[in-house]
Amino acid sequence: MSDIAFFDTENITPTRKKDDVKVKVLKILFIVLFLLLFVEVCTYFFIVPCLGNINVRFSGLNSYSEKDLVDFCGESLAKNFIKFNEVEVCSKISSLAGVENVELKKVFPDKVYINVTERKPVAMTFINTEKKTVPVQIDKKGVLFPVRSSSSINTSVPIISGIPVENIPEGMRLPSKYSVLIDQIVSIRQENPECFEAVSEIHVVPREYGNFEIVLFPVQSKLKVVSDRVLDEKTLQKMLLTLDVVSNIESKGNVDLIDLRYGTISYHYSTVKTEDSLE
Question: Which one, out of 9, 110, 169, 229, has a CA that is 20 to 30 A from the CA of 24?
């Protein structure tokens, strides 16, 4: 005779029902959370990059403002992340005469970081337009770029005159023969920038065969100082020493020019055509 087992179904069924309800609730909760995560992921990876405009952040700006660059780039910045063309934007900003370099980094899903390196002036010159004479700055590579505002003018840089820049548009380089002068100015500014405090103007005098000479105008004297194309700290110190000597001679009222060329130091009189050597 076989054994028959009996189960109390009245006690087991409610417990199973409770467990089933918990499982169903957990499943529903999991599905809801999964759907929310799915929606968020889709929004992050598809909707934001495709529909929202990019968030541009600039750095390195000095004379330019963010509004200046945003207005200049125009529709190139009014795009979403997918359609944003970094090459186009870099090319546009680099075309500005006062910009030396542009670095751009895209960060998904909607950020663009643009670091701008502006040109730093080492000298200044003036060009004549149809209406007026305007100042133009020169960087270490000889590139001309405009003065953005009067407050951005660097008064510590020397003024260069005599270079034929009327037909050179902003953003172009000076003729290559003047690169040696710019290099010399850069070198002096790095070693002893105070030297230029004694010079109000550097005038370039073109000579035959593409050569040139320079005439220095001291700050505290009406005399002109002629030198060859070599401009260095030694030349400026020699100029100051010679000015001291000339200021003490009896005929100082007639001296109008000091000549530092050809390895000698001499001075010229304005009324008498004579030349005296100081060496």
Answer: 9
